[in-house]
Amino acid sequence: MKLAVTIPAYNEEKTIPNVIREIRELKPDDFEGKIDDIKIIVVNDGSKDNTARVAKEAGADIVVSFRRNRGLARAFRQGIETALEIGADIIVNIDADGQYNAKEIPKLVKPILDGKADIVLGSRFKGWIEYMPMQKRIGNKIATWVTRIASGFPTSDAQTGFRAFSRDAAMRLHVLADYTYVQETIIQANHYGLKIVEVPVQFRKRQGDGKSRLISNIFGYAKRAGMIILRSYRDYNPLKVFGIVGAIFIIVGLYFGWRVLSYYYTTGSVGSRLPSAILATLLLIIGVQTVVLGLLADMLKSQRMLLDDVLYRLKKLEYEKKE
Ligand SMILES: Nc1nc2c(ncn2[C@@H]2O[C@H](COP(=O)(O)OP(=O)(O)OP(=O)(O)O)[C@@H](O)[C@H]2O)c(=O)[nH]1
Ligand SMILES: [Mg+2]
Q: What share of the chain is helix, strand, coil (3-state, %, to 5)?
């Protein structure tokens, strides 16, 4: 079996050689002899430093370089595609900053080798965290909680960058975002009935200059990740989302409408309740429109499901040929 390790990297020349070296130290015995080939794929996302060169020198098998910075999710998707192209049976994603310990890759891969999982998440919160600033800890907890609700999967660490995917799971996921892939993949995976398992992992302090490449501002991250989560949730549950919003408008509209009507029945005129009458009409129209929008969106969801299935089958055909 072939294992591909994908490393998305943006300006990580100081830390990536060590990550690659740690992966190179893994032996087939570490995988109970079930893995005989390990390929390292680095996706250099338009780095301004020498990430590509040092990665190659350190022993990366493939370095894919984007000419300009296109975002972590795009780089992740590229890593998966390249791994599928070279015929990987299992794909592990690890960050380039050395925070995850590559020695734990066998542990991450085991549930897939044993046929017990399609996707394995390395959970830092179930494992050991050397250093995580308080605001990131809180941010992680909140984003994890939101992802739990949106995906229906009780993850303990939705933001982990240390993950393993079976070949089939990798073909099932179609990441749409460009900024981050972490929450969207969990939402999609659970939606498609893929089996997700979590294993505890170590999380070390960031090496090199210590500065996050992805998160310059925690609020900016929350906004962008929040939008991605909301969007995936809406795409998979349009009736629920639009239905709830529409229902709120309708209920408030009915309340004002009822007040106007009861006034009208007792006094015989709408009189001073005219503004309420207009408001009620508006709210009811908006509410009904929103529900209708939900019905339309639900039809789009059916299309999306079909497209997803077509894409999955297409990927299967496309990548099978090259094996
Ligand atoms: N392709 C790509 N990768 C990125 C980008 N930003 C960050 N990365 C990589 O994504 C991984 C995670 O980014 P980090 O900056 O470590 O984010 P983090 O681990 O959530 O934050 P820290 O705890 O501060 O390290 C690293 O391997 C980065 O090199 C980007 O714009 N494009
Ligand atoms: Mg990091």
A: 55, 15, 30
Segments making up each domain of the chain, as ranges: 2-236, 238-321
Q: How far apart are CA 234 and CA 242, in angstroms?
A: 8
Cβ of 71 less than 6 Å from ligand 1: yes
For residue range 18-66, list pLDDT tens digits in order: 999 999 999 999 999 999 999 999 999 999 999 999 999 999 999 999 9
pTM equals 0.93
Query: 263 CA distance to ligand 2 centroid (A)?
Result: 62
In CATH, 2-236 is 3.90.550.10:
yes
Q: Which ligand is nearest to the CA of 94?
A: 1
**Does the CB atom of residue 163 touch ligand 1 within 6 A?**
no
